[in-house]
Amino acid sequence: MIPLRDSQPSYSKPVVTLALISANVLIFLYQVSLDSFSLNHLIASYGLVPDRFRFDTLFTSMFLHGGWLHLIGNMWFLWIYGDNVEDTLGHVKYLLFYLLCGVAAGLVHVGFNGGSRVPTIGASGAIAGVMGAYVIKFPRSRIVTLVPVFFFLTTMEIPASVILVYWFVVQFFSGIGQVGYSHLSQGGVAWFAHVGGFLAGMLLILVLGARRRYRRRPELHW
């Protein structure tokens, strides 16, 4: 299932979301300009490597990506869900929220993969936090989703609570499944980073709270 857009309007320009997307794209363009040796050195230096953990890489790793599909997928999800969460929190708190979700996701990944020497990169953990916040604030918003039906593709409007909880369950059980053979794996998806980011987002949106003028706006129900 691929989300295409949501039904919940935002009432302010998502300047931080746009800035984050721009930063990720510009850094990725720099990545693809490098030769393979320099690129590997960049990822090894600024990616999150649990076996030689450095606190600064919790931040730098979330602005690196492993390929065009990795980048586009992450930025697409950030664009769909990020504007409403930014509208809820306000620009400054939203930026803090995004970074804290990324840090929480990275720490969970390190906790489950302490001996790994594989660099982990990508904004997925921070964006999972945005999705966690979205399901708390807009559970009845409708997500227009591209869904495969046998050999065809169709669009459906699915409640945000359904599609995001489904996404979370897939991440959780994929992480559980990976635990049993993680000692054989040399890489892959950081499933528990997604879980950690999602849960952090659900908690932080409650702790940080909505800005006053937004609390007066009802959620749009379709």
Give a quick precis of the structure.
The chain is mostly helical and 222 residues long. It has nine helices and three strands; from the N terminus they run βααααααββααα. It has a three-stranded antiparallel sheet with strand order 1-2-3.
Shape: globular
Low-confidence stretches: 178-187
Strand order of the largest sheet: 1-2-3
Strand content: 5-15%
Number of domains: 1
Provide a count of the helices.
Answer: 9
CATH architecture: Up-down Bundle
Nearest-angstrom radius of gyration?
Answer: 17 Å
Description:
With about 220 residues, the chain is mainly alpha-helical. It has one domain: Rhomboid-like (Rhomboid-like fold). The protein is built from nine helices and three strands, in the order E-H-H-H-H-H-H-E-E-H-H-H. It has helices at about 15-35, 35-45, 55-60, 70-90, 90-110, 125-135, 160-180, 190-210, 210-215, and strands spanning about 1-5, 140-150, 150-160. A three-stranded antiparallel beta sheet has the order 1-2-3. Strand 2 (about 140-150) and strand 3 (about 150-160) form a beta hairpin. Helix 5 packs across helix 6. The model is unreliable at about 180-185 (pLDDT under 50).
What are the SSEs and their pairings?
Blueprint: E1 2-6, H1 15-33, H2 36-46, H3 57-60, H4 68-89, H5 91-112, H6 124-137, E2 142-149, E3 152-159, H7 160-179, H8 191-208, H9 212-215
Antiparallel strand pairs: 1-2, 2-3
Helix pairs in contact: 1-4, 4-5, 4-6, 5-6, 5-8, 6-7, 6-8, 7-8
